[in-house]
Design brief:
single chain; mainly alpha
Length: 137
């Protein structure tokens, strides 16, 4: 069926990331500009990309992975996923700091790598352990 692998990847990624977003919203509410925040974009975007790539592997084209990211952002935010994806991509592609004022923004985004990698690794380890337990059962 057309798009079933992409839908599976989106469902998997959203299912793993949604509890983190829900936990934040439960404790802090929904602040204005939440989905424009560089920290949120970098953190959530990385987790989504990681899980979409892990779930789909080489079965999806780069274009389909982009659409999957957009669909995942839309499912999590209930907003325009394409716009959030454009903001994430623009921020991710910045390789130089245009002005001193924006230094904190780019540094925040770049500094997320350790946090995102640690959490993604932890989630992957738990996912792998669940798969092993199910196969042994």
């Amino acid at each position: 069926m057309f798009g079933s692998k992409r839908k599976k990847a989106v469902k998997h990624a959203v299912g793993l990331v949604r509890p983190l977003i829900d936990l934040f919203h439960e404790h802090y509410g929904s602040p204005a500009g939440f989905w424009q925040n560089e920290y949120v974009l970098g953190y959530v975007g990385f987790l989504l990309v990681f899980h979409i790539n892990h779930t789909s592997g080489i079965n999806l084209s780069v274009t389909d992975k982009g659409f999957a990211l957009s669909e995942a952002f839309e499912a999590l935010s209930n907003l325009n996923g394409a716009e959030i994806t454009r903001n994430y991509t623009a921020l991710a592609e910045q390789d130089e700091i245009p002005e001193v004022v924006e230094a904190k923004t780019v540094a925040d985004f770049a500094g997320m790598t350790d946090d995102r990698s640690a959490i993604a690794g932890h989630m992957f380890k738990n996912l792998f352990a669940d798969i092993v337990v199910k196969q042994l059962s």
